[in-house]
Design brief:
This protein is of the alpha/beta class. It has 2 domains: 172 residues, Quinone Oxidoreductase, Chain A, domain 1 (Alpha-Beta Complex); 135 residues, NAD(P)-binding Rossmann-like Domain (Rossmann fold). The protein has 10 helices and 15 strands. Strands 3, 4, 5, 6, 7, 14 and 15 form a 7-stranded mixed beta sheet that branches. Strands 10-9-8-11-12-13 form a 6-stranded parallel beta sheet, sandwiched between helices. The protein has a two-stranded antiparallel sheet with strand order 1-2. Helix 4 links the parallel strand 8 and strand 9. Helix 1 packs across helix 10 and helix 3 packs across helix 9. The longest helix is centred in the last third of the chain and has 14 residues. The structure holds NADP nicotinamide-adenine-dinucleotide phosphate.
């Protein structure tokens, strides 16, 4: 079978290597998956550039998010059968409840955990979950990171509902899932971005307002003025943007911090935070329980993840370049078979 490898020291998509390797055999407690689709995330561009997610001189099979069919089960596996359609779970060690200190690494395709950019992969039987019955493999491959992260941001800890407003930022995988999940929960969605055509497409998807953050520096206050104050901002920029997000919130509202672009320390307005009892919460993808809840919602509401573009397996490096290039509207997916 064929597999892509990110050799140690390589930090450019040109350096990815397609190689022939033996078909892996599932051991006790493992399943083998015929890979149908793999989605790429912003994290994967960070891992390619390193040093985040790169373990010194170790070669790495990249990417974490897989959808496919189980084609073999190892000894002792009773919960899965050949033909089951599954995706991976991002964390090996987080079933339910708050995030444990040790979630079992930072996901597949990072550090010491080989990823899924291959024709077949072997995973622990408890590292996979049923994919939504109504989705294609390409659509389902968008769930493990982008979908579950958006679910956690919108419905975790302080879930939104009818009468609430949610602010989404940009049009990446997480933002568009957040828009769909918040809308399904009965909330209103307003958006900030930096391109007018992006705004038109966000409005067409159901956002009721769009503000261009590059031309309206006080975008958060502007959105609050239009919607009466939001219950939630899904901050897909990063910690350093938290202060800029606070004016969007109504009293008691939450900034769910997702983004890794502007990572680092935030300078916050203490009067606003304390006086209006605002909440700042970090989001770390999510648990198996959140993943299952998302699958149920996708099936119940017939949600279809938004795919910007697909790439054939042989052109995987182009997907990495597209991810790093920005300007996305939804997910980038590599179709494998
Ligand atoms: N904490 C977690 O567990 C977790 C999980 C998933 C993702 N993430 C992080 O969350 C972020 C979003 O992930 P994603 O997969 O949705 O990324 P993505 O598909 O690459 O999309 C990023 C989107 O954010 C927009 N954007 C970035 N900075 C912006 C800014 N300053 N103002 C307005 N728009 C901005 C981009 O717009 P342009 O097209 O204009 O560049 C793009 O639409 C990434 O930083 C990712 O690493 C974190």
């Amino acid at each position: 079978m064929e597999q892509w490898l990110l050799p140690a020291g390589v930090t450019d998509a040109e350096g990815l290597v397609l190689r022939e390797v033996p078909v892996p055999e599932p051991g006790p407690g493992e399943v083998r998956i015929t890979v149908r689709a793999v989605s790429i995330n912003a994290r994967d561009a960070l891992i390619l550039a390193g040093p985040f997610g790169r373990a010194g001189d170790r070669d790495l099979v990249p990417l974490s998010d897989v959808a496919g069919e189980i084609d073999a089960v190892g000894e002792g596996v009773t919960q899965w059968a050949v033909g089951d359609r599954v995706t991976d779970l991002h964390f090996a060690g987080w079933d339910d409840g708050p995030a444990p200190d040790d979630r079992g690494g930072v996901g597949l395709g990072a550090d010491g955990d080989d990823g899924v950019l291959a024709e077949q992969v072997v995973l622990r039987a408890d590292r996979v979950t049923r994919m939504p019955a109504n989705l294609s493999f390409a659509e389902a491959s968008a769930l493990p990171v982008a979908g579950v992260t958006a679910w956690n941001a919108v419905m975790g800890r302080l879930p939104v509902g009818p009468g609430d407003t949610v602010v989404v930022i940009g049009s990446g995988g997480v933002a568009l899932f957040a828009l769909q999940i918040a809308t399904a929960a009965g909330a209103r969605v307003v958006a900030m971005g930096r391109r007018e055509e992006q705004g038109e497409r966000l409005l067409a998807m159901g956002a009721t307002d769009f503000v261009n953050g590059t031309t309206v520096p006080g975008w958060a206050a502007e959105l609050a003025g239009r919607c009466g104050g939001a219950a939630k901002v899904v901050n897909t920029i990063g910690m350093r943007a938290v202060g800029a997000c606070l004016p969007a919130l109504a009293g008691g509202g939450e900034v769910a911090v997702v983004g890794l672009v502007e990572h680092g320390s935030a300078t916050l307005d203490g009067d606003a935070l304390l006086g209006r009892e605002l909440v700042v919460r970090g989001v770390s993808v999510g648990s198996h329980r959140m993943h299952r809840d998302l699958v149920a919602l996708v099936e119940r509401e017939h949600l279809r993840p938004v795919i910007d573009r697909t790439f054939p397996f042989s052109k995987a490096p182009e997907a990495f370049r597209a991810q790093a290039g920005g300007g996305l509207f939804g997910k980038l997916v590599i179709e494998v078979a």
